[in-house]
Design brief:
Length: about 230
């Protein structure tokens, strides 16, 4: 935290999520941006092992206990653990480098905390050994959603060259999205008007060229046929 002139600024007062707030915040001391490094350590700890570093193993029980009182007790316990408790680092979750990083970030003394003298202290973040590009990330764990279901009634619908030509000004056109939109329109037309004689749901769309309109009989001829 800094003021308008760039000088370091310290504040005082409790703020933040219980279990993530630094000891100096819990104790009511003046603090600066170094509290954020402590919160970063808590988040990394949770990412690696799935629980808060200062979460007590003791469970709160008692059906007669009021919910607000229970929440208040849990908050007080987390704050107390932040000040007094040293987190454990199970070997199955923390490598030597991970333990060194998180332990430095969770240092209770803000002046000795990793990052207190500048972000360059955290080499894991400031100078990563390897930064892959988005195209190089191998997401083997991601499952393909599979082929989307096809519409039974309009499964043969395809776009005509005339319609595709009208989209040449666009940088990118997803034909699948456009086709699905046209199919939805056809469904609504069939639902409201019914299938007209000679109307095809089949092989092509856009039989009428772009910019032209379908010719309709004039009103007089319609009236003449209706009066017969």
């Amino acid at each position: 935290m800094r003021d308008e002139n760039g000088a370091k600024k310290e504040v005082r007062g409790y703020a933040g999520t219980p279990g993530y707030t630094a000891p100096e915040v819990v104790l009511g001391h003046y603090y600066d941006h170094v509290v954020d490094f402590f919160s970063l350590g808590v988040m990394i700890y949770r990412f690696l092992c799935g629980k808060k570093p200062f979460q007590s193993a003791k469970r709160h029980h008692g059906a007669a206990q009021v919910k607000d009182d229970k929440q208040r007790n849990q908050t007080a316990e987390l704050d107390r653990n932040v000040v007094e408790m040293e987190p454990s680092f199970p070997l199955e979750y923390f490598s030597a480098n991970a333990r060194s990083l998180v332990k430095g970030l969770l240092c209770k003394n803000p002046r000795k905390r990793l990052g207190a003298n500048g972000i360059h202290e955290i080499k894991h973040i400031h100078e990563p050994p390897f930064t892959p590009s988005l195209d190089e990330i191998h997401a083997e764990g991601q499952q393909h959603i599979g082929k989307p279901p096809q519409d039974v009634e309009f499964h043969k619908v395809r776009l005509t060259p005339e319609f595709e030509k009208s989209l040449e000004a666009f940088n990118y056109v997803n034909k699948v999205i456009i086709q699905e939109e046209i199919v939805e329109v056809l469904k609504k037309v069939n639902a409201t008007e019914g299938k007209r004689p000679g109307h095809s749901t089949g092989d092509t769309l856009g039989e009428i060229p772009i910019g032209e309109t379908e010719t309709h009989p004039d009103k007089q001829s319609c009236m003449a046929r209706c009066s017969v």
